[in-house]
Specification:
Blueprint: H1 3-34, H2 39-67, H3 69-88, H4 93-117, H5 123-153, H6 158-184, H7 196-201, H8 203-215, H9 220-249, H10 254-271, H11 275-281, H12 284-305, H13 309-335, H14 343-372, H15 374-409
Length: 421
């Protein structure tokens, strides 16, 4: 099979994968609350989702480079299935915490592998595939919560409805694993050197993988992309973990919450249609900073609009568009700075930063929410994020000027990102 066929599978697989997680994750906090978990408990349980990825991010990225993205996708899908089944059969809040450890490991392995799968080819082909992958990802994030909301609405007991969505997600994961096995048999897997895998998994190799990943941050585009994606993922984790609980306080039904989250996914998918137009008018650095600033303002305004469902839809649409722009733009900024043989490590590093932000976000927000309430927590957290984005915007201007200077000093003109399409 041609490389483009596997890239298309990566694009479609990304949509399917995010539909599966979109079916399960939005209802997890509601399910935990039904089982008696407090706001503080939920904050720390959701934090566990990001804990394992922090530990395995860089070795996973190196294994993707050594074994290939298809084999690692298979390992990740096994972890995903274990997580979902554990949630279905959980009888206590600590068991839910264990399921989130597996969920976190599955997400970082599968998301990194899918991104590597679609990042091959020349710059124009690669950027087009990344943008298309991002659209499918947002489409999955839109459809997943909607399907989960429909399933849960058939049950009069909320906990039974949430459990049914986890069962449906587990069935979908099994189907994905069967299709993945068919493609994996036809994929040209790289052959690792003798002892390479054992070396990677050893304590010395484990430390070396993080050192090699951190070495990638000497590239300024990598630094910038990581900072930008940290802020956006912090906001995304905050919304995914606590927006359902917050809207539940205002009497929103599970189906209404699901449609709002689906609306966010739709906005993210539609925003990918304007990425090329934005790239023709602005630098990638300015686009990323602007998206983060918009998303931060949305956090501050959330308590203001929450009582009105129509204003909530409007705000979530803006947030979805801002976060939707982040993924392709941050990857484009970083991926040009490294070679193909380092992209597994790069994606592992990117997702390591994402998971670190998703560890900090629910933990801090859960503590704030338990002491001052969710409304005040949204105001306080949003204000800090807006202040942070002012500093990030200044860094964006500096990066854009540095890029212009570097470009003008080269003897051979190179195409800028805004001229690609």
């Amino acid at each position: 099979m041609q490389t483009s066929s596997f890239a298309r599978f990566g694009i479609a697989g990304g949509g399917f994968f995010f539909a599966i997680t979109g079916m399960a994750n939005p209802f997890f906090t509601l399910y935990a609350a039904e089982m008696g978990a407090s706001t503080l408990d939920i904050g720390f349980i959701v934090t566990l989702r990001a804990l394992l990825p922090i530990v395995i991010a860089m070795p996973a990225g190196q294994l993707i480079d050594s074994l290939g993205p298809m084999k690692m996708l298979q390992w990740g899908s096994v972890l995903l299935l274990i997580s979902l089944l554990n949630t279905v059969f959980a009888t206590s809040v600590p068991m839910l915490g264990v399921s989130q450890l597996f969920m976190g490991g599955a997400i970082i392995i599968m998301a990194s592998s899918l991104q590597v799968l679609v990042s091959n080819g020349d710059r124009e082909t690669r950027n087009k595939a990344i943008t298309t992958y991002s659209m499918w990802m947002s489409g999955g994030a839109m459809i997943g919560p909607l399907i989960g909301g429909v399933i849960s609405s058939f049950f009069s007991i909320p906990a039974e409805g949430y459990r049914a969505t986890f069962i449906a997600s587990a069935i979908a994961t099994t189907l994905f694993m069967l299709v993945l096995a068919w493609f994996s048999r036809r994929y040209p897997h790289p052959t690792p050197e003798k002892g390479e895998i054992r070396s990677t998994l050893s304590l010395k190799g484990y430390a070396a993988s993080y050192r090699r990943g951190i070495d990638l941050t000497i590239h300024r585009p990598v630094q910038f992309g990581l900072v930008g994606t940290f802020v956006i993922m912090y906001i995304q984790a905050l919304y995914m973990g606590f927006l359902p609980l917050f809207l539940d306080q205002y009497g929103y039904s599970a189906f209404q919450i699901a449609t709002i989250l689906s609306w966010q996914g739709l906005a993210g998918m539609m925003s990918r249609l304007i990425v090329n137009a934005l790239m023709r008018r602005f630098s990638l650095e300015h686009i990323l900073a602007g998206a983060g600033f918009l998303a931060s303002i949305c956090v501050v305004l959330t308590p203001v609009v929450a009582p009105n469902i129509f204003l909530t839809y409007a705000l979530i649409f803006v947030l979805g568009a801002a976060t939707g722009v982040n993924l392709p733009v941050s990857i484009m900024i970083m991926v040009d700075a490294v070679g193909e043989d380092q992209r597994g490590k790069l994606m592992g590093l990117r997702l390591l930063i994402n998971r670190f932000s998703q560890t900090v976000s629910p933990a801090i927000f859960g503590i704030l929410g338990s002491f001052i309430g969710l409304t005040a927590a949204f105001f306080a957290g949003g204000a800090v994020l807006v202040a942070t984005m002012f500093g990030f915007s200044a860094y964006a201007r500096h990066m854009a000027r540095a890029g212009t200077t570097t470009h003008s000093s080269t003897s051979t003109p190179q195409p800028t990102p805004s001229q690609e399409d």
